[in-house]
Amino acid sequence: MSTFWATILAGSVGCYALKLAGVSLPASVLGHPRVQRTARLLPVAMLSALVVTDLFEANGRYSADWHTLAGVGVGAVALRFGSSLIVVFLLAIATTAGMRLLA
Amino acid sequence: MSATVSSPPGGTAAMVPSEPPPQRAEIIRAAAGIGVYAGAFGVTFGAVSATAGLSVIQAVTMSAVMFTGASQFALVGILAVGGAPLAGLSAALLLGLRNAFYGVPVTDILGPRGLRRLSTAHFVIDETTAMAVAQSTRRAGRYAFWATGVTLFALWNLGTLCGALIGSGIDTSALGLDAAAPAIFLALLWPQLSRDRAPAVALGAIVVALGLGSIAPAGVPIIATAAVAIAAGLLPARPGQKRGDG
After folding, report:
1. What is the domain partition of chain B in residue ranges?
2. Which residues of A touch B173 (CB under 8 A)?
3. Which of A45, A38, A13 has the alpha carbon at shortest distance from B108?
4. pLDDT at residue A11 greater than cutoff 90
């Protein structure tokens, strides 16, 4: 119990400190075009990594769940046709849940 | 949605034109979508926390104070399988490190000063950053950041509370909620892929993440992909190339 609390509090304070460090960088660093371009490419890299990690590493290495993959695949098709975030979300979970139900 | 353009409030924001109302309506719609997802995702997190042995107050403390989903899931995921608390803590911090990087575009768009930094910092996460950088003006970016941040914070915490109270009684996989995170990360990524160099960075990040996935501890592959973005960002622009910055 107390170990859990120590871990939770250290993690929470640490994560906030990282956020604060990010917004406290000097303006001279931020103004540089290469820094700006890099900064805007960082979410692209990390979101891509999060997608594939969630899809292919969720239950140990390289173990994909076909129901989840199908759900996210349907979500990707919806994105291709310009669907909003909520529609993509609902289609993805509904497809995944539906496929499990049928399986 | 009226086509009337509201007059800009002169002064500090003079360098950016006021965004037309349709853009605000679009932002609100997207923020509401993220909020609904965050609520459902929060329920998932609360339920997973309860299964891992965390109390309701511990789960809610994480959502309110740590407030960065991937780190939270990594931490409870490791505690759930009886992993060392230090391993869970490291994974949470490594995943949280990306928020420090997000601080760069967020500061560029919001320009928080003094005490405002303290409150702004707390809301710097994947969704708020993605929403802010996706807008065409700084003003719309600020609006998107706060609309998303406040909505997400409220529903994420409410969801966590509900999930933790329901506990392990909820079957998250039967509801397809395990598809929620990757689907939403993909939806946030999608509009950003039109940025200059973004498709190459996305591809590089996928290769790095999957390549390191089997050998590096949880969280490290995600952080390692920062190297791909940094390398691509530091390469000099080709002559005549259109810049992808908003």
Report:
1. 18-175
2. 100
3. A38
4. yes
Sign of CA dihedral B175, B178, B179, B185: positive
Q: What is the mean pLDDT of residues B77-100?
A: 78
Q: Please, are residues A70 and B14 in contact by the beta-carbon 8 Å criterion?
A: no
Q: Which structure tokens are listed for B56?
A: 């309701």
Cα angle, residue A50 at apex, residues B148 and B94 outer, rounded to 5°: 90
Partners of A21 on chain B (C-beta within 8 Å) are: 100, 103
Does the beta carbon of B150 lie under 8 angstroms from any beta carbon of chain A? Answer: no
Tell me which DSSP letter residue B65 carries.
Answer: I
User: Which of B99, B112, B176 lies at the smallest CB-CB distance from A93?
Assistant: B176
The pTM of this model reads 0.70
Return the pLDDT at A15: 96
Q: Would you say the ipTM is above 0.95? A: no
Q: Which residue has the tokens 């339920």?
A: B47
Residues B30-55 as b or e (16 or more Cβ within 10 Å = b): bbbbbbbbbbbbbbbbbbbbbebebe
pLDDT, tens digit, for every residue of B132-165? 999 999 999 999 999 999 999 999 999 999 999 9
Q: What is the pLDDT of residues B43-79, one digit of tens each?
A: 888 887 887 889 999 999 999 999 998 889 878 877 7
CA nearest neighbour of B183 among A98, A22, A51, A83: A51
Q: Are B145 and B159 in contact (CB under 8 A)?
A: no
Looking up tokens 């979970």, which residue turns up? A93
A52 and B CB contact within 8 Å: yes
Q: For the segment B191-223, what is each residue's pLDDT rounded down to a tens digit? A: 889 988 999 999 999 999 999 877 777 667 877
Query: Minimal CA–CA distance to A4: which of B120, B50, B116, B230?
Result: B50
